Every structure is written in structure tokens, then in C-alpha cells.
Predict the structure.
Amino acid sequence: MNRRHIALGALALPWLPAVCRAQGAAGGPDLSRYPVGPLPPDFLGSWRTGQGPPGDWRVVEDRTASHGKAIAQISADPTDYRFPLAVYQPLAAQDVEASVRFKAVEGRVDRAGGIAVRLRGPDDYYVARANALEDNVNLYRVMGGRRQQIAGAQAKVSSAEWHTLTLRAEGDRFSVSFDGRQLITATDRTFAGSGKVALWTKADSVTRFDRLEIRSLR
């Protein structure tokens, strides 16, 4: 199988099995198939880490997105320790590379977008996130609902502009790239099994996502 990805706004292909086993196998939603409105059924939007209400995830029109649509988290609830998740349901993987374009639109408490892998539940996963208020990119593990930073790097994260964030997890090795430049490499052994991939925000971040691409590494 080649390395072309199924992506938000890309050509639709049949869904992969629940666990992505073939090396290089790729999956992701084709947003062009979904109408503007509620979150597509391939996503679970009720999960959130921390306190406060879950996120309000929707498909919205966006002329700057790949095909004129984006998945957006539009709730501006200011609860500080609040991390809404939109979990992509059709596949799971342990060794995986997940990439997404995001645009941090608004947020006073926080203005961030992230991509999570190896989700076991709303309180256990790895996440890479970029923050437009802090101008940094960090890698975290979330264990039992507690967020712990593994590594971080400074980077200019402009608001209201598209950026690409990629998280690669292979065994105990992790790397994070931002706009095509690798910023973080780290090791961690907390979560070794397979899990879901999810879109992620924090607090009152109003963030849009485009072109979610997921590639199994084994």
C-alpha cells in the first residue's frame, strides 16, 4: 500500500478495520462527505479531560480550509483545566503518525490546538499541542486526568492562520513536528498499547481543524 493519506477534504476510500495493522496503512475522515452542522458520526465529541462542560464540536464553513469546511471546537467556556476531545472512531493504532492542520481562532485563557494518540479514555493518552498565546509546542502525557509535560520547544504560533502539527509515536519514541519542522524528540513508556486518535483543545480555545491524516507505522 502506498503512503498517500485519506484526509479531511481528500478522496474518500473505504474505512480501515478498527485496528490498523498493515505498515503504512492510512486512514482519516473525508470531510467533504459531511454537511455543515453537527459533528460527523465518525467522531465522538463528548469526551473531555478535566473540569467543565464537554466541547461543542461542529463542521463549519471555512473558505480557507482544503475543501471549504473544517471541524471546529466553538465552545468558549473559560474553565482553565478543561481539554475537549473529538475522538476519531473508525481506527486505533499503537505505532502511528497523526498529522492535522489547525487554526487557533480565539481564546483568552488559552488559544491552542492539538493532536492526541494512544487514547485509552478521556483521561489517558499522549498529546502534542501548539499554543498561540505562549508561542510554544509541547508534548504531554495525560495519566489519570493529570497532564504532565514530557518536552517542549519555542515556536511562533500565529493566530487565525493554518499550521500543521504532527505527532509520531513508535514504541517508546516520540517526535513532534510543527509546520514541517521537527521540534521535539523524546522517550516515554507510560502507554504502550494501541488507542484512538483525537483532536484536542484547551479551556476557551476556539480552534478549527482540517486534513487529519493517520498512518500506521507497523
About this structure: The longest strand covers residues 82-93.
